[in-house]
Amino acid sequence: MKSFLKKVFFAALVLIIIALFYTYNNIWAAVDAGDTSQIMTTVNRGDTAKDIAKTLKKHDLIKNEDIFYLYIRVTGASKNIEAGNYNLSKSMNVPEIIEGFKNPVSSEVSITIQEGLTISQIDDKLVNMDLAPDGDFEAAARAFSGYDSYWFLNREEIGDVEFALEGYLYPDTYFVDGVNFDSSVLITKMLDNFDHKFETVRDTFKSQDRTLQEIITMASILQMEVRTPEDYGLISGILWKRLDEGWHIGADATIIYVTKNKDITYQDLEIDSPYNTRKFVGMPPGPISNPDIEHIEGTLNPVESDYWFYLTTLDTGEVKYARNNDEHNQNKATYL
């Protein structure tokens, strides 16, 4: 009996030692003692201790979020962590991270909205940055009511689309409040920027007989179809020519806007959607992305040519042009 108790005691002691070592390692040992690069970490207003632990784990600043949570609850440190932005690093252990929460930095953070993102993709980006909950930016775009404040937002001209602001939220780097982020504030900044950027091509636009909605819709297609500046004008010319001659625009990008999948299948080509420009003649109902000023300018300045077809090579991204379907099929066989 004594021998059995000794074994039980010894086993329990080993388990306690292991547990203590594991806990010690997760509290006092940094994730990477050699990595002192700063990581901006945001504590939002209303975040719980578990929320903070989850955020730190997401940025790989702590080893175990459960142990971190227990540590700050037991020590009472969670009561002293206020909303704000904090510069932390993987070289800090848990007590040092707690100490770091005493020194908030500016609540302003930068966010870069890349060219060609859709409103839904911007929403995803804000979620990934922990700035807004899923669907918040989309909801703000739908709820927008300030059309009269912007000359370029003609609600009647825009028509019945899911997102009336699609195409007019200018892609750029913006500084926003990282603690009290407001999607509607970002939308206003982006619309103001569109107004500012478009001023450089406004005279060119006025000289044409197309609506702004048509221009931005075509620019959004051009944005997704080609990324090489020397090709903007040529492809713009091809797309406008197809439209004016009653051809299908035939842009894969408009189908992808619906499917949200870059790999187009045969079934996708048969989708019964006005955005399917391979099946339906004419413009899609509205923009399929938010284009930059270079693609808008390319749309406003189409280059005439004998070409009707184009494709982008898979290896170099070079655009290959064709005057007829036979040449285009040859290009496909050679480069795709």
Question: Could you walk me through the main structural features you see in this protein, from its secondary elements to its overall organization?
Answer:
The protein has 336 residues and is mainly alpha-helical. The protein has three domains: 27-100, 2-Layer Sandwich (Dna Ligase, domain 1); 108-200, no CATH class; 210-335, no CATH class. 47% of the residues lie in helices and 8% in strands. It has 15 helices and six strands. A two-stranded antiparallel ribbon has the order 1-2. Helix 2 (49-58) runs antiparallel to helix 3, helix 10 (212-225) crosses helix 14 and helix 11 packs across helix 14. The longest helix has 27 residues, at 2-28. The chain is elongated and about 90 Å long.
List the main descriptive attributes of the protein structure presented here.
Dna Ligase, domain 1; 336 residues; two-stranded antiparallel sheet; mainly alpha; 15 helices; elongated
What is the topology?
Blueprint (H helix, E strand, L loop, with lengths): L1 H27 L10 E5 L5 H10 L6 H11 L8 E5 L5 H7 L7 E5 L6 H10 L7 H8 L11 H4 L14 E5 L5 H16 L3 H5 L5 H14 L3 H16 L7 H8 L6 H4 L23 H8 L8 E4 L6 E4 L2 H11 L1
Antiparallel strand pairs: 1-2, 3-4, 5-6
Helix pairs in contact: 2-3, 5-6, 10-14, 11-14
